[in-house]
Amino acid sequence: GAGVSQSPRYKVAKRGQDVALRCDPISGHVSLFWYQQALGQGPEFLTYFQNEAQLDKSGLPSDRFFAERPEGSVSTLKIQRTQQEDSAVYLCASSLDGSAGAFFGQGTRLTVV
Amino acid sequence: GDSVTQMEGPVTLSEEAFLTINCTYTATGYPSLFWYVQYPGEGLQLLLKATKADDKGSNKGFEATYRKETTSFHLEKGSVQVSDSAVYFCALRDAGNKLTFGGGTRVLVKP
After folding, report:
1. Neighbours of B22 (CB within 10 A)
2. Which residues of A touch B (CB under 8 A)?
3. Does any CB of chain A come closer than 8 Å to the CB of residue B104?
4. Using one digit for the tens of pLDDT, what is the confidence trace for B83-107?
């Protein structure tokens, strides 16, 4: 596609529910990133893939967060047993390679009630 | 760890005024520096970048110069328009390709 596509755009989850957020990067982009953006804050790094390899997951806040990119293209961020503090916009970005500029999707706004 | 500090907003300006948004960083090594912009209802867009000391990034009338001696990357525009109203984020990229963002500065340009 023309840009990075994320789905769903909005997700409301009950506390304790599991959620899965999808990212379709720009075709051919090797690098894929996930960020978390709380209201009124800058994005915070979660994890980074190069093709299917997860090279850095140092930003994942707890073991309830899990990301995968099994075929080196589409990626899924899964959050288990959601908590209220997980409410945020989750951004996906891709780049041709890690050193090029990253293109961001519009994000998924997750609200945990 | 790496960090980026930018001036807090909101910054309110009249059309055709001069805009400066200050950004300073702390990093090990030699990061690349970026400005991203988020227009209302839209995703983050890369505005400009600089990859080494003394480089000047420019786009859409905006400029920023990578100043290693002051660890700064201030964003400037000589004459703003209403359409420049947005949130601006300064960011650095480390050797591991991770972006670290500042907290964002909201700019409101009034006609």
Report:
1. 14
2. 4, 31, 33, 35, 40-45, 48, 55-56, 59, 91, 93, 95, 98-99, 101-107
3. yes
4. 999 999 999 998 888 899 999 999 9
